[in-house]
Amino acid sequence: MVGLPDGKGIMAFSDTAGANACLSLAFMLAREGEQIPTLYTNNPNFITNEWELQVNYIERPEQIPERLHAAFLFTGTSHPDSSRGFELRFIRLALQLKIYSVSFIDHWVNFKVRFSMGADIVWPDKIWVLDNKARQAAIAEGLPSEKLEIHENPQHRFLAKYWKPGFNGHGYLHQLGIRSTPDTKVILYAPDPVSLRYKNNELGFDECSALELIIKSLSAIADRSPVLLIIKPHPLQPPDILSDLINESKNGNLECRIIKVAKNTELINCADIIVGFYSNFLLEAQQMNKPIIRYFPGAPSKDPFFHLRDKLPVADDNTIISYLKYYLKYE
What we know:
Oligomer: single chain
Distance between the termini: 46 Å
Order of helices and strands: EHEEEHHEEEEHEHHEHHEHEHEHEH
Structural class: alpha/beta
Helix content: 25-40%
Strand content: 15-25%
Radius of gyration: 21 Å
């Protein structure tokens, strides 16, 4: 694999984006005749995974009974507060043992904080970023330019080249206990937890106001066929506020369901349209050739995807309704 030394490696991850990158990369290494890395996480949700790879659960690398022997270390870059510095502890240990280390940044925001451990900064040998925009932003935040390399997201390559659905039609929804008919239109809403990240309505919208607009828009056109709106909250999303909005919405032909635990790829595969703001969820859906509606009415300077010209945002009721009608073949 380009960018990694030959030989058996180690991978460490804590959040979903890091897990997807590491597991996809491990899967592709195996498919391409390389050795499968040893995988470690402190998040038990990834022990069972769609790649069917063995993942070892530990709370910190110091708990590994034997001394680490590896050709390289590859890590995700979760927020040190939520991950308790899991990947950074691996990087620090790899530096001590002179194991070549690479970390992958999956987005265009929050670069330096990913390597901050208290008052210390822990740099790996190399840091993969997505494009030149990410590289420039990383340098502006103080990341060493000589450590930065532009590299595609391993999960996107996996989705485009290897991923196959495990269910036909709406079969995965039926397994989750969600009823639908062959003519049911499925809209998947996967919002970022804007209300947590931007206080005092800094962006001018949040996951709740966007959901209200989506429900309003679907209610206006849900008279031609059954419409199922599935809400897949971010793992950090406060649990009640979206549920309250759904409970308040009543429309005979529109059903709303919140799904907290599911395989994102299978949910995307079932959907006719995916709606979101600026998350990896939208990028994954696009790799799977699904239509997306990217809602972002805020200032372009605060839009992490603004430079991605094939993902221009929509920002008003009429435009969203027009897109919904088009993708649902109502026009």
